[in-house]
Amino acid sequence: MESGTLIRADRPLDLEAVPERRPRRWPFSPWHFFLIPLALMMLMPLVWSVVTSLETASEAQRFPPVLIPKALHFSNYVDAWNSLPFGHFFLNSFLYSLATVAGNLLFCSLAAYAFARLRFIGSNLLFVLLLVTLMVPFQVVLIPTFLIVRHLGLVDSVGGLIVPNLCGVFGIFLLRQFFQSLPVELEEAARIDGASRLGVFFKIVLPLSAPVLATLAIIQFMWSWNDFLWPLIIITTPEHSPLQLGLSMFQGSHVTNWNLLMAGTVMSQIPMLAVFLFAQRWFIQSIAYTGIKQ
Amino acid sequence: MADVSFQDVTKEFPGATVAVDRLTLDIPDGEFMILVGPSGCGKTTALRLVAGLETATSGTITIAGKNVTHLSPRDRDIAMVFQNYALYPHMTVYRNLAFGLRQRKTARAEVDRRVTEVSAMLGLDELLARRPAQLSGGQRQRVAMGRALVREPKAFLLDEPLSNLDAKLRVQMRAELKRLHQQLNITTIYVTHDQVEAMTLGDRLAVMSAGKLQQVGTPQDVYERPTNVFVAHFIGSPPMNLLRATVAEGGRAQAGDLSVDLPQVPAGPCIVGIRPDSLSLREADDSRPALDFDIEVVEPLGGELLAHGLVNGHLASPDTREETPLLAGDSESRAEITAKLDGRLRLKAGERVRLAVHPGEVYAFDAATGDALR
Q1: B72 and chain A: CB distance < 8 Å anywhere?
Q2: What pTM does this model have?
Q3: Assembly ipTM
Q4: pLDDT digit string, tens, across residues B224-251
Q5: Strand pairing of B352-357 and B290-300?
Q6: Does the beta-carbon distance from A188 to B133 stay under 8 Å?
């Protein structure tokens, strides 16, 4: 019973009447006055691009933009698909994204485990040096990276997209922090049980790290899927282009087919949405770590 | 099954912290050895040295006569139960139990046989499909024990395995541990700071303080004949009362009001120790040495009662690390001591009574080194 509720001895206690637990509230909080307009602002470009993808070329060119077109031209999607080798674009993007996700999961986790658990001379210095490279913008290392990739003979190939992105400092950092939070006794117990260092890593540490591995996979997938600058530098033929680079082919030097470009863009985002919806499960699913009593 | 032996083992951590200081200890085959001491005394480090989770800075550790000092944990054939159990949260109880056997490439049928056997012994049969998160504290503790048992190791290492259980379950598991050891007779090293566990479980105790081994012996031996003031104070609950005393020529010791003959003790300053249960109310015709006791707090325990109060005299510190324990106590001329008395007495705070002690139950320790003098 809430404090402050009086029970009077001269009246029978009406149990039904007692719980007026909370005063009636507005169905929204004052924050919504601020958040709803902000959400609309964020949604606007998305709505605009979806609407544009369904307009005629002339409607798409107009300013101020036509937000309610006269008719919905779903044929734009078919036209966009047929006017460029979208099959190739999708395949290249999938290859690029999946390979970099796999590479990052394997190499970043190995490096992160070494930084989190192995004691070796200069480990802290090495880790700090790695972190420092996070501060260096990609544009600074773009040319040296290009020269290395050219030396490897990977210019204008999907391999040239993948190789420099197989392991990233961000992934190492993210996983190291997580590994350090795992109870070390689990690993010690496994070592006493007869597991080798790598055995401990693959059988104990990685299975317990599923949520953070999923997080890294999604971040890396989004990053590779939406990457434009590196493909622009390294890829020259449409057959090897990933989606984001391929879409730029709708942009001519004089004319841009905005409706087709937007149709292509909307299509390109569908796998991203699917991955995100699928992976949400991982974000939300809480893994119970109660084998260790804290 | 095997004996475990420490020969002059030292473990130093970076920053010159000496966790274990020249430890020499032989644990014969099948013995239940308790490492006991206050937190930070090096008992857990000593255990981890046997497990191979730490490497000794110097000295040798042997298991079954084999030098294992530099072997990795998996090559030592020992099993360990951790304080927090360290059950693999992503595996079922069955897989937790089977993990060690699978790592050692044991045949599937044999794994199954041993897991079934151990789970029956510990009453885990119904829980094999569950995960650690779905178990109670006591069940987790059993699984942790089972994981150690199933491997049939040369030695068991237990690091405060009962400390996370509630009081009732702890008593129950304590008895179960003892029964298991009697049944299996595997060399066991058990680390605890709980002296009830130490006294009840162990064949022998090794009392440690500040990385150094203070005394090894059977629980009764350590309780009755402590080698120094630290062991005397640490073993026994409530702890031994320690008072500064001066011994005159001829062996008459004076500690505040208390005057007692200690013939073997040389003249000069010393520490006298009296266990709370050695004190009793002085009878009218009592000729035993006695002292005035002003009761401050009475704690009835049923059959007996604990009385805390003040006597004339100075407290002495049990800390042998300090050079002059005699002078390390407070400078008050009143000392707080505890007496364990008959529970039928009706004593009240504020009352003054006269307590007597048998001279044979008074311990004496060197004022400078803390070593026992008789």
Answers
A1: yes
A2: 0.80
A3: 0.84
A4: 999 999 999 999 889 999 998 999 888 8
A5: antiparallel
A6: no
